[in-house]
Amino acid sequence: LSITDFDGLKSDPFSFYAKRILRFRAMDRVDAEPTHAWRGTLVHDILQHWFQQDDCAPEKLIARAEALLTDGTLDPLLRTLWQPRIADGLRWIANETQRMRDEEGRRLLIAEEEGTMELLGVPIKGRADRIDALADGSLVIIDYKTGMPPKPKQLNAGFALQLGLVGLMAERGVIKGVKGNALRFEYWSLAKNKDRDFGYVSVANSTKSSDKKHAAEDFVAFIKGQAEQALE
């Protein structure tokens, strides 16, 4: 199973069965408009190349964002409505990454790296959008979102397991280039923030605990329990 399967497995097991067991696939219309998934794939591809080819230099990501605005091969709707927003969001990621590097001593460890582990004897595979290391060596698990991140209510109900499962994989050392304690879980959203600009960070493991390490451990344990319940 993929870590992205768990939400469907919990919320709509019949659709999960049709997709994963019967292998049915819904086909897009020929004239279908670009979907959220399409935009997400575009952003992830750009950020992966930025990590692998540009050494995360902020000016290189800004250049990639600006190149989007002159790409005449993209769908007209995407180019008109979404390119400016995506470009602004990418500029924010570049600047925020540099700020955290300078002020917090963060290091970007991996991007778009896969791993595999077992839960209750079931192989689980997943891909990490990005994992940073804090100055003390602990890990920050990051998931990029072109839209709104999951709300706390969704997280508490166990319907947004992907981020926590990546953290569990990182702690088990099954993602190449990463091992350590996952201390923070962040959604980096390219949607509008409270100042009406694009881009903000939403922390997933926010609890009443004042001890960040304890809160992170509780979050990972909760996600693991929810995933095992879904498998059972």
Description of the structure:
With about 230 residues, this protein is an alpha+beta fold. It has eight helices and five strands. It has a five-stranded mixed beta sheet. The radius of gyration is 18 Å and the shape is globular. About 30% of the residues are buried.
Task: List its salient traits.
five-stranded mixed β-sheet, alpha+beta, 232 residues, 8 helices, 5 strands
Q: What layout of secondary structure does this protein have?
A:
Blueprint: H1 6-11, H2 13-21, H3 36-54, H4 58-68, H5 76-104, E1 107-119, E2 122-133, E3 139-145, H6 152-156, H7 162-171, E4 182-192, E5 198-203, H8 212-231
Parallel strand pairs: 3-4
Antiparallel strand pairs: 1-2, 2-3, 4-5
Walk across the major sheet and give the strand order.
Answer: 1-2-3-4-5
Order of helices and strands: HHHHHEEEHHEEH
Q: Which blocks of ≥5 consecutive residues have pLDDT under 50?
A: none
Backbone shape = globular
Q: Using only CA atoms, what is the Rg? A: 18 Å
Short description:
With 232 residues, this protein is an alpha+beta fold. Helices cover 47% and strands 21% of the residues.
